[in-house]
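Quiz preparation item.
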């Protein structure tokens, strides 16, 4: 068999179906898989962030609802309310209740005193954007927790 180089070469090229990938095809496939993996990780991160924000908003809303209930109950049971700014103090025959805004911890703390001694403490976590202010007039006390265009949380109680 005397085959020339051209004949051998042509046999290799037309030698049936190809069973392996070329290096270029492998690099293209791996690049595509990498892009898909990065996209999937970003989507998962975004979904996780949405879930965390929703959880934090729900916890803040519950804390503010608890705070509003406590302030209204304490105001109804008190004989006097004083405080144009923090702390807000409510006095009754049973003792004193003091609401303080702890800016460094971003919460409002409720302290109950009987005979000058602390007997109970309750804490209400606030959202980070919250900057509570107290406004008073002759008939009412207003605790403005947040006043923005999209969210406004205000607690109002009548003075005794």
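Solution:
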């Amino acid at each position: 068999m005397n085959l020339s180089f051209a004949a051998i070469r042509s046999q290799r090229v037309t030698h049936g179906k190809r069973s392996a990938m070329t290096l270029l095809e492998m690099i293209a496939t791996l690049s595509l898989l990498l892009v898909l993996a990065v996209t999937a990780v970003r989507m998962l991160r975004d979904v996780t962030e949405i879930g965390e924000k929703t959880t934090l908003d729900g916890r803040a809303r519950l804390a503010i609802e608890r705070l509003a209930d406590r302030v209204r109950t304490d105001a109804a049971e008190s004989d006097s309310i004083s405080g144009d700014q923090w702390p807000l103090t409510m006095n009754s025959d049973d003792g004193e209740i003091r609401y303080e805004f702890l800016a460094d911890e971003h919460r409002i703390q409720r302290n109950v005193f009987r005979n000058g001694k602390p007997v109970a403490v309750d804490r209400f976590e606030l959202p980070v954007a919250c900057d509570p202010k107290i406004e008073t007039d002759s008939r009412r006390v207003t605790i403005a927790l947040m006043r923005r265009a999209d969210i406004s949380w205000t607690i109002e109680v009548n003075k005794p």
